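Hi V.,

You were right to ask for the full record rather than a summary. Here it is.
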Amino acid sequence: MNNKYPLQEILDVERLQTLQDNFSKSMMIALVVVDEKGVPVTKPSGFSDFCARSRRNPALAQHCYDCDDAGGRAAMAACRPVVYRCYCGFVEFAVPIMIDNHYLGAFISGQVKVETSKEAEIPYILAENGVWEENPMLVNLHENTKRMPYERFESTAYTLLHVASYLVEQAYANNIQRELHQKDLALTNELRKRVDIERSLHEAEFKALSYQINPHFLFNVLNTIGRLAFLENAQRTENMVHDFSDMMRYLLRKSNNGLITLRNEINYVNSYMSIQKVRMSDRFDYIFSIPDKYLDVICPFLILQPLVENFFNYVVEPREIKSHIHIKATDDGHDVIIEVTDNGDGISPQDIEHILSGNENRQKGGIGINNIQNRLQLLFGERYGLEIASPHKPKLGTSIKLRFPMQEVH
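Predicted structure:
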C-alpha cells in the first residue's frame, strides 16, 4: 500500500507517545499506535503482563501484529471504532487514524475481559489460536487478566476517536502552514497567478489559525475523565465526556470561509467552561451576557477560545484567590462588540503593544490574541479587530473587545 500520508510524517511520534501515555494512564487501559501495516510506531503503554510477555516471543508477537493490522483495517473500513477479540480471546478495540479518507494507522487498545455474556457476542478479528496455552506462565497470566465493564470500554473507544481526529487535524494544519510559506515564495516568480494563489493562501490560513489549540488542556481533560470514572457517579462522567465530545466535534467542523454563528461559538465555550469547572471547582466563575438577538450573527470560528484559554493560563492557574470572567455582547447599530473581562493582574502597556503589533509574546498569550486580530481583519477588513485595555494592577483585570459586522446567517 503506497500511502501518500505516512503516519510518521503527519504526526510527531514523540507527541503522540505523550498523548498515548496520558490516555492509557487516565483510563487504565493498554494502548499502542500502529502504522498502516499494523507495525507499532509507539512504545506500548499500560500493556497487561500477558501481552507484554507474549510479544517477547517472535512467533506470538506476529499473531499480535496480525490482529492489530486486521483490527485497524476493520476500523478503517467502518470509519469508526471497532471492538473485537484478538487471537487469544482478549477484548480490544481499534480506532482509525485517517486524513482525507486515507488510512494512516490506528490506536489499538484493550487487552481486557468484559462481562461473560457480552464477551461471547464479540467476534474474533482473526481465527482463535491457542498456541499460547503451551506456556503455563501465560495461562496463569491470562486467567488473572482484569475485567472492565463493556459500557465503559466502548465509551473509551469513542472518546479516543475524537482525540485522534483532533490530533490529525491539528497536525494537518501545521502542514498547511508549511505549504503557505512555499506558496508565498512562488508568488514572487509567478505574478500572473497572484490572485488565484492568494485566495488559496487565505483559505488555508483560516484552517491553520483555527486549529492552534493547546494540547495541554486536552491532556488535563483526559486525566480528569479517568479520575471521575472511579471516584464519581456515572452521570457526572457521562456529562463530562459529552461536553468534551461536543468540543471535539466543533473543533473539527469544516467551514469554507472560516465563519460560524455566535450561538455555536458560545456553546463551545460553555462546554469548555463546564469541563474546567469539574477540574477546578470553585476557583473561578463565569458569566455570559449574550442577548438572543446576537446568537445568529456570524463570527469567525474559534474566535473566543484563545481568550478563555488565556484566562485559565494567566489568571486562574497562578493564583489562589477566586477568579472571574465575563463575556458580553453589545452593538453600535452596525457592528457587534464582544467584550471579555477578567479580574486578573492585567497586561502591561509594552506587552499590549507587542501583542497587537504581531511580535510573539508567549508569556501573555500574544500569539493567540494576534491570530484573532489577523483573522478579523482578513475576513472583514482593516477597520475590524480587537482592543485591549488594562490598568496593569492586581485584581483590576483586563478587558478585550472584539468587533465584527452584525450580519446574520441567511
